[in-house]
Specification:
With 211 residues, this protein is of the alpha/beta class. The protein contains eight helices and eight strands, in the order βααβαβββαβαβαβαα. The strands form two sheets. The protein has a six-stranded parallel sheet with strand order 3-2-1-6-7-8, with helices on both faces. The chain is globular, with a radius of gyration of 16 Å.
């Protein structure tokens, strides 16, 4: 992360990672996987890390147990929730309320809240944190994130601007010039809703891993 005069080493930082949002954004945009170790380093940026949370959905597929353990080893407190399967086969898995509750509890103890997600549902959380004097920072893919969310943050790191910095390279990451663009509707929130729907349907396919 480039030098930012609003960031200094004495700031107490808490990091909140919406793993599903990151996974599907990287998958849809780049056919790649997120390097969550690099994301955590960018979030802390030389400051005092108080706690780092990673929110995941358990679907009992692939090597998810090893993935969750890898998150723990690099410094995350892993919050797990079972995938909900409804009558008729519909599937849903999200951590919106749980993440917000953890963040609200942490706000009195921190100076900076770093949210790793582009989900517009967290806009009210950012506004509340700022009303309490907490600096809000976002790390997310600008191409799939909510413009409304970004506008409310004090600082935004757009992972789409430097994808090679945040993605695992061993899977043959495409160059930025050959990536198939998503719909321009992402700027008014339509793409975010589409991504949300996909998360609810395809979570069993999650096979995140580290480099």
């Amino acid at each position: 992360m480039n030098y930012n005069p609003a960031q200094h080493k004495e700031q107490r930082v808490a990091v909140f990672v919406d793993v599903q949002n990151m996974y599907y954004s990287a998958k849809n945009l780049y056919a790649a996987k997120v390097d969550f170790g690099k994301v955590l380093n960018a979030a802390v940026s030389g400051r005092k890390l108080v706690r780092a949370f990673a929110y995941v959905i358990k679907a009992d597929v692939g090597s998810e147990k090893e993935f969750f353990e890898a998150l723990h080893k690099i410094g995350f407190e892993v919050r797990e929730k079972e995938l909900q399967i409804f009558y008729g086969g519909a599937k849903k898995g999200d951590w919106d309320v749980g993440l917000c509750m953890d963040a609200v509890r942490m706000i009195p103890k921190i100076d900076v809240m770093v949210l790793v997600s582009g989900d517009g549902d967290y806009t009210d959380l950012l506004e509340y944190a700022r009303s309490q004097g907490v600096r809000t920072e976002i790390i997310a893919f600008g191409k799939t994130g909510s413009a409304r969310l970004f506008e409310r943050a004090d600082d935004v790191t757009d992972m789409s601007a430097t994808p090679n910095k945040f993605l695992i390279k061993s899977r043959g990451l495409k160059s930025e010039t050959t990536i198939r663009p998503r719909s321009a509707n992402n700027r008014n929130g339509n793409l975010q809703e589409s991504q949300k729907e996909e998360e609810n349907i395809e979570l069993p396919e999650v096979t995140q891993e580290f480099e």
